[in-house]
C-alpha cells in the first residue's frame, strides 16, 4: 500500500441527502417508477471523489443513531425540531426506500458502510480519522466536521456544502480564514455561535465574530468559563452577563458538539477494490433499478484508480 494515498471517509447521509435534493425525482426512476435520484447522485459523487482524490482506502459512515440519547440527555433541544411525530428523523418518504439500495450497491462493489449503535455518522468519521493511518480525507457537507482537520497528521475536510463538483479542500488555514478560529477550536466556536440546524441555541447575543474572538483569546470554552470567574479577565459587562446567563448550556455544549473519537468500531477492510467484489450482483441491481450509467461510471473510476497518476 502506498501510504501517500489517502483514506477517503464518506459521510454517507450528508451526501445522499444532497443527492436527493439535487436531482429531480422525475430525472431518475426505476422501470417500476420508483425514484432512484438519491442513489444515482450518490454513486456519481462517489465516482467523482474516487477519480479526483485517488484514495487507496475508502469507508462510508452511517447514522445508526441520528440523535443519540447521550447527547439529548445533555441538551434536550438537540435536533428536536427534526423529530417526526411518530418518532425517528423526518426523512422524505421517497428517500427512505433508497437508502437500503445504496447499501446493497456498496456491498456489491466492496466498499464498507459502517455504523455503530448509539452514535452518529460524524462519530464514526471522527474515530476513523483519529485512529487510521494518515493521510485522511473526510467528504461531508456538515460544518461540524471542520473540527476533525489536523494538519499534523494530516486530516483534511473535503467540504461538499455546494456539492462534490464544487468541494472545498480544507486545511487549518481554510478554517481560520473562513471563521477566524483554528480547526481545533471550531467545536467550541460552534457551541458559542449556535446552530439552528442542530438545535444548538448558542449564547444569546453572541454572533460569529464575537464567538471567534472569544475562542481566539481564551483558547477554549473551558478557558472562557474559567475567565468568567476572574474579575480581572477583561470581559465587557454586557458580554460577561450574556456568558454567565448561558453557563449551564456552555457546561454541556462541548460534549454535544464535539465528535466522539472513541467509537467501538467493528472490524473492516477499508482497501478500495480495483473492481466490484460481486459483479453479477452489481449488474443485476443496475438493471433492476435503471442505474447502469452511474454503476458503469463508478466501476470505471475504480479501474482507473489503480493506474499510477
Brief sketch in words of this structure:
The chain has 309 residues and is of the alpha/beta class. Helix content is 44%, strand content 8%.
C-alpha end-to-end distance = 15 Å
Number of helices: 13
Q: Which ranges are low-confidence, i.e. pLDDT below 50, for 5 or more consecutive residues?
A: none
User: Overall 3D geometry?
Assistant: globular
Query: If you compute it from the alpha carbons, what radius of gyration comes out, rounded to the nearest whole angstrom?
Result: 21 Å
Mean pLDDT: 95
Q: What is the H/E string? A: EHHEHHEHEEEHHHHHHHH
Major beta sheet summary: 6 strands, mixed
Total strands: 6
Helix content: 40-55%
Quickly give the structural class: alpha/beta
- What portion of the residues fall into strands of 2 or more residues? 5-15%
Please tell me about this protein's structure.
The protein has helices at 12-22, 37-53, 69-74, 98-109, 121-131, 172-179, 186-193, 208-218, 221-228, 237-245, 247-257, 279-289, 292-305; strands at residues 7-11, 57-61, 113-114, 136-140, 155-159, 168-170. The protein is built from 13 helices and 6 strands. It has 309 residues and is an alpha/beta fold. The mean pLDDT is 95. It starts with 6 loop residues before the first strand and ends with a helix. Strands 3-2-1-4-5-6 form a 6-stranded mixed β-sheet, sandwiched between helices. It is 44% helix and 8% strand. Helix 1 (12-22) crosses helix 2 (37-53), helix 2 packs parallel to helix 13 (292-305) and helix 4 (98-109) packs antiparallel against helix 12.
Amino acid at each position: 500500500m502506498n501510504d501517500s494515498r489517502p483514506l477517503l471517509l464518506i459521510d454517507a447521509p450528508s451526501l445522499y441527502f444532497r443527492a436527493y435534493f439535487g436531482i429531480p425525482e422525475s430525472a431518475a426512476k426505476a422501470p417500476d417508477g420508483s425514484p432512484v435520484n438519491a442513489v444515482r447522485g450518490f454513486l456519481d459523487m462517489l465516482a467523482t471523489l474516487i477519480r479526483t482524490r485517488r484514495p487507496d482506502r475508502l469507508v462510508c459512515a452511517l447514522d445508526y443513531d441520528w440523535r443519540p440519547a447521550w447527547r439529548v440527555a445533555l441538551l434536550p433541544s438537540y435536533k428536536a425540531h427534526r423529530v417526526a411525530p411518530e418518532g425517528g428523523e423526518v426523512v422524505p418518504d421517497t428517500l427512505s426506500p433508497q437508502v437500503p439500495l445504496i447499501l446493497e450497491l456498496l456491498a456489491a462493489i466492496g466498499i464498507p458502510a459502517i455504523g455503530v449503535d448509539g452514535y452518529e455518522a460524524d462519530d464514526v468519521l471522527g474515530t476513523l480519522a483519529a485512529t487510521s493511518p494518515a493521510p485522511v480525507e473526510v467528504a461531508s457537507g456538515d460544518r461540524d466536521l471542520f473540527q476533525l482537520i489536523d494538519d499534523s497528521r494530516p486530516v483534511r475536510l473535503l467540504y461538499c456544502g455546494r456539492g462534490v463538483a464544487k468541494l472545498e479542500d480544507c486545511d487549518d488555514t481554510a478554517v481560520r480564514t473562513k471563521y477566524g478560529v483554528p480547526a481545533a477550536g471550531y467545536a467550541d466556536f460552534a457551541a458559542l455561535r449556535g446552530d439552528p440546524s442542530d438545535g444548538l441555541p448558542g449564547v444569546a447575543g453572541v454572533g460569529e465574530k464575537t464567538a471567534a474572538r472569544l475562542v481566539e483569546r481564551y483558547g477554549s470554552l473551558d478557558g472562557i468559563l474559567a475567565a468568567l470567574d476572574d474579575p480581572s479577565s477583561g470581559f465587557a459587562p454586557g458580554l460577561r452577563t450574556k456568558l454567565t446567563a448561558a453557563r449551564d448550556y456552555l457546561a454541556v455544549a462541548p460534549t454535544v458538539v464535539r465528535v466522539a473519537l472513541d467509537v467501538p468500531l467493528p472490524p473492516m477492510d477499508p482497501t478500495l477494490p480495483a473492481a466490484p467484489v460481486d459483479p453479477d450482483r452489481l449488474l443485476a441491481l443496475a438493471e433492476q433499478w435503471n442505474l447502469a450509467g452511474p454503476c458503469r461510471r463508478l466501476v470505471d473510476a475504480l479501474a482507473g484508480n489503480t493506474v499510477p497518476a
